[in-house]
Amino acid sequence: MSPRSDAPPPKIRIRGLKKSFGRKKVLDGLDLDIPQGRSLVVIGGSGSGKSVLIKCILGLIKPDAGSIRIDDVELVGASRATLEAARRKVGMLFQGAALFDSLPVWENVAFGLLARRLVDRKQARERAIATLAKVGLGPEAADLYPAELSGGMQKRVGLARAIAAEPEILFFDEPTTGLDPIMADVINELIRTLVSELGATALSITHDMASVRKIAHRVAMLYEGRIIWEGPVERLDDSGNPYVDQFVHGRASGPIKLRV
Amino acid sequence: MNPLAAIGRATLAFLAATGSVVLFGLQAIAAGLTGRLYVRQLGRQMLEIGYFSLPVVGLTAIFTGMVLALQSYTGFSRFEAQNAIPTIVVLSMTRELGPVLAGLMVAGRVGAAIAAELGTMRVTEQIDALSTLATDPLRYLVFPRLLAATLMLPLLVVVADIIGVMGGWLVSVYKLGFGPIEFINRSFEHLKTEDVVSGLVKAAVFGFIVALMGCYQGYRSRGGAQGVGAATTRAVVSASILILVANYVVTELFFAR
Ligand SMILES: Nc1ncnc2c1ncn2[C@@H]1O[C@H](COP(=O)(O)OP(=O)(O)OP(=O)(O)O)[C@@H](O)[C@H]1O
Ligand SMILES: [Mg+2]
Predict the structure, then answer these.
(1) Which fold has domain A10-249?
(2) What is the CA radius of gyration of chain B?
(3) Which residue of A has its CA nearest to B125?
(4) How many Å from the N-terminal Cα to the C-terminal Cα in chain A?
(5) Which residues of A touch chain B, with CB atoms under 8 Å apart?
(6) Which of A90, A103, B135, B205 is 20 to 30 A from A13 (CA-CA)?
(7) Which residues in chain B touch residue A161, judged by CB atoms under 8 angstroms apart?
């Protein structure tokens, strides 16, 4: 899976994105392109604004300024209908899984299918069970409620819910956090397969460097509200960027200062 | 501190809050009327708001009817007007106490539950997740609750009216020496359709208020468990106050006619 030289046009194109909460600047003129059919991973410290970035793209948080285009359609300041149409292309795994705790697992997984009325309830259940199998959960999990699951299982159900409708674009907010190393690898494999087989475009966030190396075609580092480095995953170790070096090798000393 | 500036600030804050509640309600109604109706959600909420509120509302109504009969006896016997007791009981229940007490009980029970549920869904990102799954949270979560509460509260009040009058009947017959049939005849003697209808209109308004405040506060809650707790309190307090205000307004409207 090496990057091709004839790079396809970007599926998602972000320019000058700004977002502050009160006086705190979280995103400060961020530029990022995500090519069609590629998997891009954003790395960056805790609280650097990675989740905010994803929520801005989905229109869940309103940016203060800038431009976000999916398939060349502008989403900043777009109408509800435009935003909804864009969201329909996206499957999202939330950092905290965000499962609907009033619904059993299978209805969580099939929620998007039922909402789009693509299937009836019986088919929805079958699709849900098939999707659960992909993330390593057996059919016996289908009738449990989210509160009855371990954190790692919730994450996998969240992942199943994100991919159930086979969307063109996938957002994963820390897909492997809270999973044991073997299950993390299963999930990494799954993300790879989804991107290569479905031709999906993926934007993931992770702190897990093993996961980065496994799922990323390209890596971008977010620091102080901007992307300070972006390049193919092969260049991660010789990026020539001291910030990236420090982050990748997890060193306490370096240019990145933690503001505690 | 300039007192005028303080008054001005408070007024502006009040107007801004009112505006955002109204806007929220209108957006939810617009969302609900323009797309599919989530029948399952509606059914679940009708059960939750209507059926499961029956015990609380019924208990409140029966004791209120009983105490009404007793208190009006204490007063009216002083000028030989005991015969008015059935009328007093039935008019007080249908016009006033049935809807107001049911409204306040439901505000405590249902308003709090709605705010806590939506608040938890907000802080655990479930509301965001709905948006990413081709579902408008206003249409899926808020509209069914508004509709269910507006429909179910009048039904609850019909039950409360009947149980309340029954409470008055019990006390009047077993304690105050009324004939069982006499009480019922007298209670219907002066009862007009308008008395019952005004009570039911009130009930629908109160139901809407309870659900709206619960949804609004829950939907906008921030900051974890503490934020949800605060939202729940605000939902109950604001719904209760608004019920008492709306009660006067609706009474005035019917009174003028
Ligand atoms: N709704 C909000 N209101 C106010 N501040 C917010 C909100 N959402 C995020 N923030 C702030 O924005 C900053 C970035 O948050 P974000 O969740 O994007 O971090 P992150 O990079 O995803 O971190 P982590 O890796 O720990 O998940 C944080 O300082 C957070 O306090
Ligand atoms: Mg995050």
Answers:
(1) Rossmann fold (3.40.50)
(2) 21
(3) A98
(4) 39
(5) 55, 58-60, 84, 87-88, 90-92, 94-96, 98-101, 111-112, 115-116, 161
(6) B135
(7) 129, 133
> How confident is residue A106, by pLDDT bands cut at 50, 70 and 90?
very high
- Residue ranges of the domains in chain A? 10-249
Determine the pLDDT at residue A1: 46
In short, whether A48's Cβ falls inside 6 Å of ligand 1 is yes
A240-260 pLDDT, tens digit each: 888 898 888 888 888 877 655
Write out the two tokens for A193.
Answer: 């397969």
Segments in chain B forming alpha helices (H): 3-34, 39-49, 54-76, 85-91, 98-106, 112-123, 126-132, 137, 143-174, 180-189, 193-219, 224-256
- Can you give the residue ranges of every domain in chain B? 2-255
Taking CA atoms, A18 is separated from A59, A213, A226, in Å, by 13, 29, 9
Percent of chain A with pLDDT over 70: 96
Write the DSSP symbol of residue A174: S
Mutation test residue for ligand 1: of A17, A19, A27, A48, the one with most atoms within 8 Å of CB: A48
Work out the pLDDT band at A2, boundaries 50, 70, 90. very low
Q: Is the CB of A50 under 6 A from ligand 1?
A: yes
From A8's Cα to the closest Cα of chain B, the distance in A is 26
Cβ-Cβ contacts under 8 Å, A115 against chain B: 133-135
Cα B22 to Cα A124, A220, B18, distances in angstroms: 37, 43, 6
Closest Cα partner for A168 from A31, A28, A36?
Answer: A36
A67 lines ligand 1 (CB under 6 A): no
What is the overall mean pLDDT for chain A? 89
Residue A79 CA to residue A62 CA, distance in Å, equals 12
Could you tell me the strand order of the sheet in which A24-35 lies? A24-35, A10-21, A65-70, A73-74
| Nearest CA-CA partner of A28 in A58, A56, A60, A59 | A56
In the chain, the amino acid numbered A40 is L
| Residues lower than pLDDT 50 in chain B | none
| Residues flanking ion ligand 2, Cβ below 5 Å | A 51, 95
For the CA of A46, the nearest ligand? 1
Protein residue with least CA distance to atom 2, ligand 1: A21
SS3 per residue for B197-209: HHHHHHHHHHHHH
Flag whether pLDDT at A191 surpasses 90: no
Give this complex's ipTM.
Answer: 0.88
Q: How far apart are CA A202 and CA A11, in angstroms?
A: 10
Written as one string, the DSSP assignment of B119-143 is: HHHHHTTHHHHHHHTT--HIIIIIH
